[in-house]
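Q: My collaborator sent me two sequences in one message, no labels, and asked for predicted structures for both. Can we handle them in order? The first one she listed is below.
A: Yes, handling them in the order given. First sequence, followed by its structure tokens:
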Amino acid sequence: MPTAILNSSSCFSIAAAQQNSAEDSIAQKWKKLGLPASILENHLDCARFLIESKLVFSIVGYRETSQNSQRHDILLDRDGHPMIKVQGDYKRWEWIKQELTYDPQTFQIRSRAYPGSITQNWTYLSPQGLVPIDRLNHERVVPIYQLDPIQRQRVMDHARKFYETNSEVDQGILKDWVVQFHTSPRRQFVSTIPPLPSHPIYDNLARNLNTHIVMRLIAPNGDLYSFGLEMPVDSQQFLWENGMAKFLGTVIAKVNKAGDYEEFRPYVSRIVTSIPLTGQRAQNILTMLNTIGDIRFNFLRQNCTNLAGIILKASGYDLDMQTTIPEVFYDTLPDVKSIPIIGPLLHIVSQCYQRVVESLCGMTPRPIRKVMVLGSNLLTYLPRKIRTIALNLFILKFGGGKMRDAMPNGIEEDDLFKANRFLNFSRLIRSWTDLLKEQTLEIYHSKYFIDWQKKQKSTFIEAYSGSPKLTIVPPDY
């Protein structure tokens, strides 16, 4: 009996410690966001709802973007009761908690009134506040914010700098829309593991960590549309439920039509690129987004980089973002000059060797070079084929032969090839013959997009200010 009492007391102590830790975490985030301390003291359930659902980051993000706390913020009623904007009007928390709830299983704010499998998800947008819109299943793309005329003009003026490094398509046609892309490179694979150290030896590895790409359209009246590719929670769970055993499996993704999830997330620096766009091209993009259905998602073959390439192509420009797994592997190796102590010497030796090889190749007659290349290809054929099989087995080991959802009836399966559209394929490796194919090793990578962004005159880079905010308007230039 004393042992049972002791164990029971220990359980209560652990539970209390966990609760205190959770409340401390809420309090720290609350204070950092500059929200009323009285809500923590008198309405902790409201603060917990806002933090756990991440709704608070959207509210503060729009507050910081608009610089208007009356338009977006958590306000206090006359008696100190918290109020949140819902469908254009500020509602008291006591009313909101009776109508809405947060579902931690789906990461969604939902109506309480719908029973069973019937659900109504809610999203926070500007200027309405919380609205009954499901970001992943809405019938059309909707604006999430509106720039004032001065902001819109600054964005347009900056976007025209794109023509300093690119030829202008659709010359002579009015371009009163802007298409914007932004990326936020991070030195970590997932948020649950520490970032790579800030040392040059890790720079190539960091560059090869795939980065999410967010797309926007800005209308002549200032309406801002934000969208990207996103996996529903059931697709995410399928890929991660057994560690990384199914990480390279194929699942369903959708276009988020009421604001991309990355908009208000913290970042180190955000890279934003703008391009002027004709009204016809903008409408074509909106029509495509409104009619697109489920997308076969795969981290290697069909990811957000594909969507960015499709949108860029629809804007009149083409960028090759395809590479191969072996190329990515070699590209992650550190530059020899970044190796401590012996790095500079190895770099000099490497440069000298490269110059000697280039000189010899330049002096060798072309027919002989062709024979040498042919001989090299014949000698390396078997090693390359073994490498292909080994890498495909690696893909298979981590889920390349798995899928969560079968192909829809009547949809013909595409072979894996380079295309300016989304492909319909069940999974990367469909039979043993795919183990022999090099096409399965071809992937789409965001690093080429980021490299392209950094070369554009219409790109600006903004460091994180410590508070969530939409990075739309370039700083003074």
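Q: And the one she listed second?
A: Here it is, processed independently of the first:
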Amino acid sequence: MVMHIVMFTFQEEVAEALKQEVKLQIEQLLDLVPGLLNMKVGLNFSQEERAMDMVLISHFADREDLDFYASHPEHLKVIDLIKTVAEYTKVVDFEA
């Protein structure tokens, strides 16, 4: 199993409603991209200085499915949205 984790920090001026919309758009990928087995998306409530704003945790059977997801047109649409609102992102991919 491959786990794909992405953490996001939104630009400071991004409204809460837009954060919720980004979360929804990511969650909808579960029904749109074959090979995406499971996904959790959460908006952060921690007030720690080191905290990030949102996290995506997704599962794939293998690296090939993750590669397919990465280049899938529906995923690329969501990435385009994220690029307009994210200050930066961090990613970790690993086999479990």
